[in-house]
Design brief:
With 390 residues, the protein is an alpha/beta fold. It folds into two domains: 4-263, Alpha-Beta Barrel (TIM Barrel); 273-389, no CATH class. Helices cover 34% and strands 20% of the residues. It is built from twelve helices and 15 strands. The protein has an eight-stranded parallel beta barrel, surrounded by four helices. Strand 1 and strand 2 form a beta hairpin. The longest helix is centred in the last third of the chain and has 27 residues, at 334-360. It is globular, with a radius of gyration of 21 Å. The structure holds zinc ion (ZN).
Length: 390
């Protein structure tokens, strides 16, 4: 059984929100300060890290995906008595479940009124609400998102979008009816690119007894700004006092009032041999700072600095760029362990810093950080980003 509450501490204009999600694990109260993220996992494990490594990083909450456990149906882990926290040896963390992997949403076979299609390493599987909730009641995560009928095509018809909203709401009703007490359900807001359907989905979801909301931008094949504009329509119709999780928006989602993000970015960069170096220092104004360095590059062979000067992570406190380059070059597994230790630490530090800026009303610093991080990604020039943010 898990206690759960969300306190909204501050809203600023633009819509930065500062909040606190309080949950209890093993009779201890734990806090997830927001904005924050659910740390991405593959099959219940943070990529490149063992639970021991993970303890060196200030992680509070992890996102787990049912899709990764469905090679057999029902998943063998549902036969384990004691719940998913114990099965994964993640007993002190808040665990958030969803059906599909927000980091790798693949277009697969269709959904119907009864099931969602998912991808496993044994091929495509179908999951019904009844099965999903049954697994969740056994796993006993802190929170899970209800099933959603996402439409991974561009410009779907209004009829298709209406069907998606109806299905998602029906699935939510079934979920709320069947979920056992103590597990908290977040409703997924849909509506694709149709404004009136986004409003209907948000209003109807908000009318249900959900603990929070998920906004999924992954099926919207458009620019970040267009995606954010659509999300804003939904957010207008959601109550302010419940947390909002978003997929596929990245940190600019902070500006429209998102509290929790998905986060496969640090692990993807780690797999490429990249160490994150984007700007997070309070007054370190360097707009042109590199977003990451590629440790495969031979120029780091004799570079005895840490990945990032001043970083307090285990890797930066104890190892040099040259050593990590050497480990990559010799295909030693420790290379990605050290890189991930840094990348995840740095990413979480970014959220910590953003929270501090919201608290202190130092928004110029946030703008500078966004420009440093997203200058190229969100396909806007710096002046446009400034305009967009403020
Ligand atoms: Zn570091």
């Amino acid at each position: 059984m898990s206690g759960f509450s969300f306190n909204l501490l501050k809203i600023t204009d633009p819509q930065f929100r500062l909040g606190r999600l309080i949950f209890s694990r093993n009779k201890h109260e734990k806090i997830l300060d927001t904005p924050n993220c659910f740390v991405y996992t593959m099959r219940g494990s943070v990529p490149h890290l063992t639970p021991d490594n993970l303890q060196t990083i200030p992680v509070d909450a992890l996102g787990i995906t049912l899709e990764h456990f469905l090679e057999a149906q029902p998943p063998s882990s549902t036969h384990f008595v004691g719940g998913i926290h114990k099965f994964l040896n993640l007993e002190d963390y808040l665990l958030f479940f969803d059906v599909r992997d927000s980091g790798k949403l693949q277009i697969i076979s269709f959904n119907t009124d009864k099931f969602v299609s998912v991808v496993t390493n044994q091929g495509c599987r179908k999951v019904t609400t009844e099965e999903y909730v049954r697994y969740m009641n056994i796993y006993n995560p802190d929170i899970f998102a209800s099933m959603a009928d996402l439409i991974p095509v561009k410009n779907p018809s209004l009829k298709r979008v209406k069907k998606s909203v109806d299905r998602t709401l029906n699935w939510l009703d079934e979920t709320l009816e069947q979920t056992k007490e103590g597990i908290h359900v977040f409703g997924v807001v849909t509506g694709h690119d149709k404004h009136e359907e986004r409003v209907r989905s948000a209003q109807e979801t908000a009318n249900r007894n959900v603990a929070g909301f998920v906004l999924n931008g992954l099926d919207l094949d458009m620019t970040s700004k267009e995606r954010l504009d659509l999300m804003k329509i939904s957010l207008k119709h959601l109550p302010k006092n419940k947390p909002r999780v978003a997929y596929g928006l990245g940190a600019p989602g902070l500006t429209i009032g998102i509290d929790i993000f998905d986060t496969s970015y640090p692990s993807e960069e780690t797999s490429l041999g990249h160490g994150l170096t984007f700007l997070i220092l309070e007054d370190g104004i360097q707009n042109e700072q590199e977003k990451f360095i590629n440790l495969w590059d031979n120029k780091y062979r004799t570079d005895f600095r840490p990945i990032l000067d001043g970083c307090k992570c285990y890797a930066c406190q104890n190892h040099t760029r040259a050593y990590i380059h050497h480990l990559l070059d010799t295909h030693e597994m420790l290379a990605t362990v050290l890189l991930m230790s840094h990348n995840l630490f740095h990413y979480l530090q970014f959220f910590k810093d953003i929270r501090k800026s919201i608290d202190n009303n130092t928004f110029t610093n946030i703008a500078k950080r966004f420009i440093s991080m997203y200058g190229n990604d969100i396909k806007m020039n710096k002046a446009e980003i400034k305009n967009f943010l403020f």
